UniProtKB/TrEMBL annotation:
This is Glutathione S-transferase T1. Residues 1-82 form the GST N-terminal domain. CDD domains: GST_N_Theta. One of its GO terms (molecular function) is transferase activity. PANTHER family: GLUTATHIONE S-TRANSFERASE T1-RELATED (PTHR44750). It comes from Hibiscus syriacus. InterPro entries: Glutathione_S-Trfase_N, GST_N_Theta, GSTT1/2/3, Thioredoxin-like_sf.
Length: 133
């Protein structure tokens, strides 16, 4: 089953995911979601992304949202993606290696890791703004 990228090209994070796929030769089906018509609030799209934001991807049965999580997942799971895109390089970082105990608890399963990235990215983009926004 081909990767699906849910998109509205007016969104910069969507363009980042699409450009990444094109640069790395990842075949995908672009599913247009018209933000101006609030198509991201349909029940069908809410099943893919309960936060109702773009971009979101579906790879087989796996659903993922938040652009950074999407990019890390694509870099880690698709063959032919150049090494410089991959978060595997983090293993060489001395700051990261000093936290080996924490890393040992980090799931090795790409799908579980991607879900963690999605939640962390959502937290960074939304909860950190505070109640005044």
């Amino acid at each position: 089953m081909k990767l699906k990228v849910y998109s509205d090209r007016l969104s910069q994070p969507v363009r980042a995911v699409i450009i990444f796929c094109k640069v790395n030769g990842i075949e995908f089906e672009e599913v247009r979601v018209n933000l101006a018509k609030r198509a991201h609030f349909t029940p069908e799209f809410s099943e893919i992304n309960p936060m109702n934001q773009l971009p979101a991807i579906v790879d087989g049965e796996f659903k993922l949202f938040e652009s950074h999580a999407n990019l890390i997942y694509l870099a880690s799971s698709y063959a032919g993606v150049a090494d410089h895109w991959s978060p595997k390089l983090m293993q060489c970082n001395p700051i990261v290696t000093s936290f080996r105990f924490s890393l040992s608890r980090y799931p090795s399963d790409i799908f579980k890791r991607s879900k963690i990235h999605s939640v962390l990215d959502w937290h960074h983009s939304n909860l950190r703004r505070g109640p005044g926004v």
